[in-house]
Design a protein that fits this description.
Elements lengths: L1 H11 L3 H29 L5 H26 L5 H28 L2
Helix pairs in contact: 1-2, 1-4
Length: 110
């Protein structure tokens, strides 16, 4: 949620202070989430499989900046940058809600 708020703040920023605060929200909560995932996967994943899964998780985490850059570069000629960030934010929120709904349905079906 905080990352989404930060993305909206950066997209709609009218001055550098608001942009900076939004950017800090994005970066800070992204790093906290990464630390949480790293500590959780050590408890959940068997030690023999940890190297394989760690590599995959690092790959997925590191794919987002180039992918975002590709999306922005692809659409910036057609749509203004603020709208692109807002649309990406909406898509990310919808994907997150869908994943949460799926996870909750799996847990409650046990």
């Amino acid at each position: 949620m905080a990352i989404s708020i930060g993305a909206l703040m950066t997209a709609l920023a009218s001055n550098y202070i608001i942009y900076f605060l939004g950017f800090v929200l994005i970066i800070a909560f992204d790093k906290m989430f990464n630390i949480f995932v790293r500590s959780l996967r050590v408890k959940v994943i068997p030690p023999i499989e940890l190297g394989k899964t760690t590599g995959l998780i690092v790959l997925l985490n590191n794919m987002s900046p180039p992918l975002a850059g590709l999306i922005v570069a692809s659409f910036v000629g057609f749509i203004d940058l603020q709208s692109i960030v807002i649309y990406l934010n909406i898509a990310a929120v919808l994907l997150g809600l869908g994943a949460l709904n799926y996870a909750v349905s799996k847990v409650t079906s046990w």
